[in-house]
Design brief:
four-stranded antiparallel β-sheet; three-stranded antiparallel β-sheet; about 30% helix; about 170 residues; alpha+beta; 2 helices; about 30% strand
C-alpha cells in the first residue's frame, strides 16, 4: 500500500463506522419506542366489555363472595339535618333562607322572632355588619351590589325578603 491509499482508506473506514453506529442507534431506538409504546397504543388485544359481559362478571363476583345468599342491605334514609335528640330543648330545627345573589342564611324561629344560625355568603360577597340593624336583618356586601335580607317567621318557619341594592 502506498501513502495515498492509506490516506483515503482511513477516512472511508471512519465514515463507515459512523454510519454503522448511527444505523445501530436508530434500530435500537425504534425497537425501544416500539416496545414501550405497544401497551400505550391499545394494541394489547384487550377490548372493552359489553354491558352484558359486565353484568355477568359482576354476578359471578357477587356469587363468589362469602354471604352471597344474604339480601343486600336496605338503602339508608338520609339523615335529618339535626335529629331532635341533638337539638336544644324547645328550639325548632334551622332552615335555609335564600339570600338572592348574596348566598344563603341558616335561620330558625324562636316564636315569631327569627334567629340567624349562620350566614353563607356567595363567592364575591361578605357579611356586612353595618347592614345588620336587628335580629331579623342580614346584610351581604358584594363587589357590584349589596344584598339585604329581612327575615321573618310564619308558623315557625323562617323566610326572607331579599332586597338587592346597587353599590354606591
Amino acid at each position: 500500500m502506498d501513502r495515498s491509499t492509506k490516506r483515503t482508506a482511513r477516512p472511508g473506514l471512519q465514515v463507515g463506522l459512523w454510519i454503522a453506529a448511527a444505523v445501530g442507534a436508530l434500530v435500537l431506538g425504534m425497537t425501544a419506542v416500539g416496545t414501550i409504546g405497544s401497551g400505550l397504543g391499545g394494541d394489547s388485544g384487550t377490548q372493552p366489555l359489553a354491558a352484558e359481559e359486565i353484568e355477568a362478571r359482576l354476578a359471578r363476583q357477587v356469587a363468589a363472595e362469602p354471604g352471597a345468599g344474604a339480601a343486600p342491605p336496605a338503602p339508608q334514609q338520609p339523615a335529618a339535618p339535626q335529629p331532635a335528640a341533638q337539638q336544644p330543648a324547645g328550639k325548632p330545627p334551622p332552615a335555609v333562607v335564600p339570600a338572592g345573589p348574596g348566598g344563603t342564611i341558616l335561620a330558625r324561629c324562636a316564636g315569631t322572632t327569627p334567629e340567624v344560625v349562620s350566614v353563607n355568603p356567595a363567592q364575591g360577597f361578605e357579611r356586612d355588619d353595618e347592614d345588620d340593624a336587628g335580629p331579623g336583618r342580614v346584610g351581604l356586601d358584594g363587589d357590584d351590589v349589596d344584598v339585604v335580607v329581612a327575615l321573618s317567621c310564619a308558623d315557625g318557619v323562617p323566610s326572607g325578603q331579599v332586597t338587592v341594592l346597587a353599590e354606591d
